[in-house]
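[Q] Does anyone have a clean structure-token version of this?
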Amino acid sequence: MRLGISLIVFSLCMLAGFAEVRSQSKSGPIGFSLVDKNGNISKPADVRDTYQALGAYTVLDPKGNQMHMTYASPGTAEAYRKTGKFPDGTVLVKEVFGTQHAQMTTGDAHWASGTKVWFVLIKDEKGRYKENPLWGDGWGWALFKSDAPDKQVATDYKKDCQGCHIPAQATDWIYVKGYPVLASK
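[A] Here you go.
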């Protein structure tokens, strides 16, 4: 079991490192192109191909293990390393997968299987959408489920989203310790 978890962590770290080399870009944050005039957030297309992989978490749960992979809009990691902050307009996308596993020569291997949900955050330093209950504490918050991937289903970020982020309040509501590409090189 311990070897299997170690292999998962190693594999995900390797994946995150490879993705950084492959997808790092000099272009700036694009977040507000995903927002309509009322503050409704759309899920960006082609996240796996055009965004930078920040890192992954494995969540062990008796009801079903999960893998959480987080991506950032191009240029985010470089900007974060320079300033220690997410620039205005940064887009973060967390894709939550179920898992499958099998005994392999390397041990009990687990891998991502089937997207369950996507969480999308857009950094908003200026408080642009004060009247929209999905915007606050410096971010726009959105949730998309796999059975309707283009329909945003959260209604109030304080009820639907923020509760999971309370332990990360000191780091701008983001679990940065799980994202090795944000660390200074």
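[Q] Thanks! Anything notable?
[A] Confidence is low (pLDDT under 50) at residues 3-28.
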